[in-house]
Design goal:
Rossmann fold, 6-stranded mixed sheet, 4 helices, 6 strands, about 20% strand
């Protein structure tokens, strides 16, 4: 089973949209990444997001593309400055769940799961990209299995 971590798509600045919804480019990039993931056969059993508009919109696109019968759900504890250690304790490693959130939370969560320290960077997220984590069969520890980003470099 896999864990899919996603940073929301590109969002408008608060001065333009106080709710910070996705830009047209953000929508297009998320739709493209979701379609590529579907082409690779990515399946998710649940799509969870922070409840913020940009995360909700991103989660909806991924759910519609990868799991049409799944309704995205908002949960607390995924805001940018929330406690990743507390959140990580509730992650179900046996299900294919996608979490859509924000920086620095998503990067810190990935670091914590991989290294045991939220302060040791292991990956730089991009808006709309997916980082797939899995449990290594020999060590029982989290590893980065693959990533799918809108841009290389």
């Amino acid at each position: 089973m896999a864990l899919y971590l996603v940073q929301h798509g590109k969002a408008h600045p608060a001065e333009i949209d106080p709710e910070r919804g996705l830009t047209d480019d953000g929508l297009a990039e998320v739709e493209r990444i979701a379609a590529v993931a579907r082409g690779y056969g990515v399946k998710v059993s649940a799509v969870i997001h922070s409840g913020k508009k940009r995360a909700s919109q991103t989660a909806m696109i991924f759910a519609e593309t990868l799991a049409p019968r799944v309704s995205p759900a908002a949960v607390s504890g995924m805001d940018p400055g929330d406690d990743v250690i507390r959140f990580a304790a509730g992650i179900d490693a046996s299900a294919d769940i996608m979490y859509v959130g924000h920086l620095p939370f998503m990067e810190k969560l990935t670091s914590y799961l991989i290294t045991g320290s939220e302060g040791t960077p292991v990956f730089r997220f991009q808006n709309g990209g997916i980082v797939c984590l899995d449990i290594h069969p020999d060590t029982g520890t989290w590893i980065i299995k693959w990533t799918l980003m809108p841009h290389i470099g």
